[in-house]
Amino acid sequence: MGAFFFRNKMADNQNQTLEEVQTFEGKYPKQIWSLFFSEMWERFCFYGMRGMLVFFMISQLNFQEKEANLQYGATQAFVYAFTFVGGLFADKILGFRKSLFWGGLLMILGSVFLSIGPHEYFFFGLSFIIIGTGFFKPNISTMVGELYKDGDSRRDAGFSLFYAGINLGAFLGGYICVAIGKGYILGSVIDEAHRWNVAFGLAAIGMLISLINFYFTKRHLGPIGLQPGHPDAIVKTRALPKWVEYAVYLGTLLLIPLIQLMVSKTEYTDYFMYTIGPLTLIYLFYEMSKVEKVERNKLWAVLVFILFSIIFWGIYEQSGGSLSIFAAKNLNDSILGGLVHLDPNGVNNSGGALFIIALAPLFGIMWIWMARRRFEPNTIIKFGLGFIFLGLGYYVLFGTKFFAVDGIASLDIFSIALLVITVGELCLSPIGLSIMTKLSPARLQGIMMGMWFLASAYGQYVAGLIGANMAEARAGSSLVEQLITYTDSYKQLGHYSVIAGIVLIAISPLVKKLMHGVN
User: Fold this and answer.
1) Where exactly are the transmembrane stretches of this chain (predicted)?
2) CB neighbours of 140 closer than 8 A, spacing ≥ 6?
3) pLDDT reported for residue 113
4) Rg (CA), the chain
5) pLDDT one-digit tens code per residue, 55-69
6) What are the start-end ranges of the E strands in 374-506?
7) Which residue pairs, CB below 8 angstroms and at least 24 apart, start in 396-405?
């Protein structure tokens, strides 16, 4: 009898209509908590890998600092560029659910290869993670957006909560993985020869937990994320032959050697980035030609957000490149006035995520409170504020040199800079995820979410070039000279960020007009 009730309850959940899913009481739909958990563990895997990249390349693979920065930028650029490809395949062939699951499997395989032989299989394992993230990342974000009806003022709060899940995974993976690799955690338990194997292996375990959780989550999503052609899918299309789906899986695997080559040779990144952006814009213009004028104007507004986000991420993503080297060489390991000693690379990787965990729910509540009183700033103003706080954070990074002794700066001041930068990120990134779903037509949701992450790819690419220029300028210099070069560069980045924020706020009336009432 119990089994019969359980099966029928599952069937009821699977047969929910979109209207039933989107009709909920309170601040958040119940499904968002399960998606929060899946995203958290996927981000544990991804940010664990990301946080280890530059340090591992310099300390274990003997890369020069300039080369490591370029390699970091190339790897991250390919990761985010493939989110566009993943969004395209999800929209047209796989659906969000199957795309997410396939991406997760690839990420597990990549992390397993890295755990078996981090030195021997470094680029091979990264290739799996790059493509896997492309299939996973944009599609879970799109499913969060579809939990809400058009015009629901709670959507931004939902994305802020979801963003907290991203950063809980980033906090845990970002600190634990690199700290294990460096011996800050379990150094007396894990012998030095196997620390990096364990660190990369933890990323695989995190991704496995994410997929298991999603397997049990999808039954509560109603029609959200179903494959195109499914009779209950939100957007009605003709079902494709099954071989098309299998061709995507096979083609993905056949791409692995090519991706490995392109990632290991950074000069190929230039060719790729010079090509993928223009081709993507051409495809978007083609899709824009097929929609009504109002939808087309909304997509023009999306392009404004995307172009400014490239600038934002180019500055912000020094965290994985130049700031990783800065943390390893120019920061002490004491925080709270020496009461606690932490790995500075771990703090750099996870400090911002910790602040987001603390602040994201408060920001979500604040947006709802302001919306009810009709003085919530519109999305363009939020973007502009994000840039201004980002710039202020880089001014604090510049200020670390005034608290340095013999070229070693304070981890406390560095952490304050991360806090200010985090406020900027909370104004921009979760709202960016939300606006992509608000302004995009239903049949282009995955593609436009992919374009949002493609903009991040260009930001990562620019970040690598900036970090490489810093490393080149300070080759062979003393710790004091390195500190001055880095902090002066951060001051310049602060200038650029504040100027971009002011420009964005100045053009906000024009962009608001293009958005046709979407806030």
Assistant:
1) 44-63, 69-90, 99-116, 122-140, 161-186, 198-216, 246-263, 269-286, 298-316, 352-371, 383-404, 416-435, 447-468, 493-511
2) 35, 38, 39, 42, 96, 100
3) 94
4) 22
5) 899 888 888 888 888
6) none
7) 396/420, 397/323, 397/487, 397/490, 397/494, 398/487, 398/488, 398/490, 398/491, 398/494, 399/487, 400/483, 400/487, 401/483, 401/484, 401/487, 404/330, 404/480, 404/483
For residue 341, give the H/E element and its range: strand 340-341
By the 10 Å C-beta count (0-12 exposed, 13-18 middle, 19+ buried), 470 is classed as buried
DSSP state letters, 5-40: HHHHHHHHHHT--HHHHH---SSS-THHHHHHHHHH
Left if phi > 0, otherwise alpha if psi is -120 to 50, otherwise beta: which for 297?
alpha
CA distances from 303 to 26, 74, 281, 310, 384 (A): 33, 23, 9, 11, 15
Dihedral sign, Cα of residue 39, residue 40, residue 41, residue 46:
positive
| Predicted model pTM | 0.79
SS3 338: coil
- Top-level CATH class of 27-264+276-515? mainly alpha
Determine the average pLDDT of the residues in 274-291: 83
Residue 138: what pLDDT? 67
Alpha helix ranges (H) inside 60-94: 65-89
d(CA 65, CA 474): 10
pLDDT at 4 > cutoff 70? no
